[in-house]
Amino acid sequence: MTRTPATQMDAARRGIVTPQMALVAQKERRTSEEIRGWVAEGRVIIPANHAHASLEPNGIGSMLRTKVNVNLGVSRDVRDYDVEMQKVRSAVDLGAEAIMDLSSHGDTQPFRQRLCRECPAMVGTVPVYDAVIHYQRDLATLSADDFVDVVRLHAEDGVDFVTLHCGIARETIDEIRRGTRRMNIVSRGGSLVFAWMSMTGNENPFLERYDEIVEICREHDVTISLGDACRPGCLADATDGCQMAELLRLGELTQRAWDRDVQVMVEGPGHMPMDQIAANMKVQQSVCKGAPFYVLGPLVTDVAPGYDHITAAIGGALAAASGAAFLCYVTPAEHLALPNMDDVRQGIIASRIAAHAADIAKGIPGARERDDRMADARRALDWDAQFAQALDPAIAWAIRDSRAPEDDHGDTCSMCGKFCAVRSMNKALAGERVDLL
User: Is the full-model pTM beyond 0.90?
Assistant: First the structure.
């Protein structure tokens, strides 16, 4: 009797095109066989938990459109789950392909289950965050079994990918304590694993029990997002020995998951000078054998609190153009506060601009068509057509409407008025008089 494929990768390696692969192929203007082949190799992933019934699948890989993730979730100080669901709906409307629930307070499971019932975007979580909350016990009292059981709980609830900080090991503790870094560890999950190892004297449970966790992920077709506990949190720590040592370990763990047909993506920096970004993308692609790279930013300067959605968009565009497949959005509230609705909107749009610019640079099929339609609409001074092509039509319309020229016949804006170059050229080429006064 033929066995039902356990995962998307398992199906792909057996020559089976799943409905999810077929849909991704249609979205990406690729053939189903191309998608199947890339999933089999691990170069494309389709995070799709069997239990996430509302999911509209998307593929993640450097040869596909660059995807955008949105982080949200409650904290002790900001804990309204209804507001978080509003953020989810706004994020999906603005084109985000993934939502990560990073809640660190309250009754987290009902919200996570609601996400998996209602959210069409991929859903990701970081189980180590939830361990203390789920068990309502301090970190040092938790066992390795507790951490593994939380991974299982998240998989059963329907999440499509889990971030696991498997790359930090006992020797990392010694290196950090030697004071070689300016910012130590800035990964929240990484810091929790570091603290747990420091307090208990034990090895990282996500590393020590990795094969068991892989089997849980295989059972539910949960994609493993290998977290970068040692990602640089400032420019001074970029591409240092701690980051590179962890990346080498993540490369080994990628292969171990692939050996069991479990999909993997690898997380990356972080804060990084612009001149190091392309090289980091190439190193990751080599070390991790082409597994999709998921980057936070990178932020290209440390001195722009309140504007880090811009510093991240600059780095994200460079990273994606150089091979990163998945951008985690950064909001103006980064380093400052839990993002509100407006922060979420600004962060998503900044990341989508970065992703789109990179897709054009990479020659992703169809990426520039929208820009060409915008150019045609601008040449025709067709404002409705321009708004239709805009990444954020509402804000574009609102700006024009609030500052429309006094004598608005639709052929100018309040910047240039009748001195508009497009208007002048259209009239001149049509043999008409160009009136300016």
Answer: yes
